[in-house]
Design a protein that fits this description.
3 helices; alpha+beta; 7-stranded antiparallel beta sheet; 2 domains
């Protein structure tokens, strides 16, 4: 047996406890927030947060550069080191949730942001699944034509909705003038 571990042990960025997950059984936490431990994420047993290695993000067709860099005034005052390389992680924001990111190794998500990040990841995974379906459809004979027909139908529906919205706005404006 090799001394090297495929899933190294990490300490929680907040409390220092050893994170569960990876190849370990999912950690038991008092937190009602679901984890990505079954995907290979490492979860704090006290519920402080979750480390999602780059490999987990790649399985989900995401990466550590998801979201945008937070302005300096929104970042934490304490620097947060990556648990793999020790370099300072970048404070990023996706949707309304903040997290720390090492573009080479993964992201740390505090407990307060986990639910939103996981919801955003679920939407992202579904979008990637749908893109894969559309690409397979395009590869089939007649696929591009079928997709073009669907796009034209969507354009007509959007035009109709825009017209209905304009009519509704006009009615509201008339009502407000009264």
């Amino acid at each position: 047996m090799s001394a090297y571990r495929a899933n190294p042990t990490f300490a929680c960025l907040r409390c220092g406890e050893t994170l569960g997950g990876g190849d370990d059984p999912p950690a038991r936490t008092s937190s009602p927030i679901p984890t990505l431990a079954n995907q290979g994420a490492h979860t704090c047993p006290r519920g402080c947060g979750e480390w999602m290695p780059r490999g987990v993000l790649e399985k989900l067709h995401a990466d550590a550069d998801v979201g945008t860099t937070q302005p300096a005034w929104q970042q934490r005052t304490a620097q947060v080191p990556c648990r793999v390389c020790g370099e300072q992680m970048e404070a990023r924001k996706w949707g309304g949730a903040g997290f720390e990111s090492c573009k080479d190794h993964g992201i740390w998500v505090d407990a307060a942001a986990r639910r939103e990040i996981q919801a955003l990841l679920a939407v992202h995974v579904e979008q990637e699944r749908r893109i894969g379906e559309l690409m397979r459809e395009l590869a089939e004979p007649g696929g591009p034509r079928a997709l073009a027909i669907r796009l034209l139908a969507l354009e007509r529906r959007i035009d109709k909705l825009v017209g209905e919205l304009g009519a509704l706005e006009a009615r509201v404006a008339i009502t407000e003038r009264r």
